[in-house]
Amino acid sequence: DIVMTQTPVSSPVTLGQPASISCRSSQSPVHSDGNTYLSWLQQRPGQPPRLLIYKISNRLSGVPDRFSGSGAGTDFTLKISRVEAEDVGVYYCMLATQFPLFGQGTKLEIK
Amino acid sequence: QVQLQESGPGLVKPSQTLSLTCSVSGASISSGNYFWSWFRQPPGKGLEWIGYIYYSGTTFYNPSLTSRVTISVDTSKNQFSLKLSSVTAADTAVYYCVGDLGAWKPDVWGKGTTVTVSS
């Protein structure tokens, strides 16, 4: 089975500074249809998850442009250009090859 | 604006069947625009996908749960449902119903409902 490994586990960031979260797939992330369905979700405290990014780098409508996704091969990154207080929460990568699997989550907190 | 609301018992006894319903508003479940999914999150842990159903009745389940899971749809009530049999304490979690726009794009989430498995 594919394993998704996220780093760091916790990320203390100063307001206004950038943040970066990595996600690595243990096997090829490419779906049988040729696409790579790698998504990023944000879960604020006490809230359900929220989809931010899909298919590696596509930002969902309404998601601030300070969020960006990138990646190639088995390595993917979520970047926040300037962290705001409302960005506090846990971020998950999700990869769907046969079915969705999640990374263990990265807790973003303000330093 | 599509909204989802989970409902069902918050406490289920071990070995029994967990049953939850998701009511959909703002969209017709028969529209074909969404795959209707269930996810769960054990206390303090990460997310797990359970499965989905399409309005036509086509289902796809997580292989680790497929022997215990049934997802069904009631188009007349604009609802879809989850049944998980033979539950144990490991099934204690917040259960979310989710609208997936296809291509694994889970963009509409219910608020979640907590289910505890305990005698």
Sheet/helix structural class of chain B: mainly beta
Instruction: Name the overall outline of chain B.
Output: globular
User: Tally of extended strands of chain A?
Assistant: 11
* Low-confidence segments of chain A: none
Alpha-carbon distance between the two ends of chain B: 39 Å
Residue share in β-strands of chain B: over 45%
Description:
The complex is a heterodimer of chains A (111) and B (119). By secondary structure, chain A is mainly beta. Helices cover 0% and strands 51% of the residues of chain A. Chain A is built from no helices and eleven strands. Chain A is globular and about 40 Å long. In chain A, 36% of the residues are buried. In chain B, the strands form two sheets. In chain B, strands 2, 4, 5, 6, 9, 10 and 11 form a seven-stranded mixed sheet that branches. Chain B has a four-stranded antiparallel sheet with strand order 1-3-8-7, with no helix packed on it. The termini of chain B are far apart. Classes of the chains: A mainly beta (111), B mainly beta (119). At the A-B interface, strand 4, strand 5, strand 9 and strand 10 of A face strand 10 of B.
Features:
heterodimer; A: mainly beta; 4-stranded antiparallel β-sheet; 11 strands; globular; B: 119 residues; mainly beta; 7-stranded mixed β-sheet; 50% strand
Describe the structure concisely.
Chain A is mostly beta strands. Chain A is built from no helices and 11 strands.
Question: Could you give the topology of this structure?
Answer:
The complex is a heterodimer of chains A (111) and B (119).
Chain A: E1 4-7, E2 10-13, E3 19-25, E4 37-43, E5 50-54, E6 58-59, E7 67-72, E8 75-80, E9 89-96, E10 100-102, E11 106-110
Parallel strand pairs in A: 2-11
Antiparallel strand pairs in A: 1-3, 3-8, 4-5, 4-9, 5-6, 7-8, 9-10, 9-11
Chain B: E1 3-7, E2 11-12, E3 18-25, E4 35-41, E5 48-53, E6 59-61, E7 69-74, E8 79-84, E9 93-100, E10 106-109, E11 113-117
Parallel strand pairs in B: 2-11
Antiparallel strand pairs in B: 1-3, 3-8, 4-5, 4-9, 5-6, 7-8, 9-10, 9-11
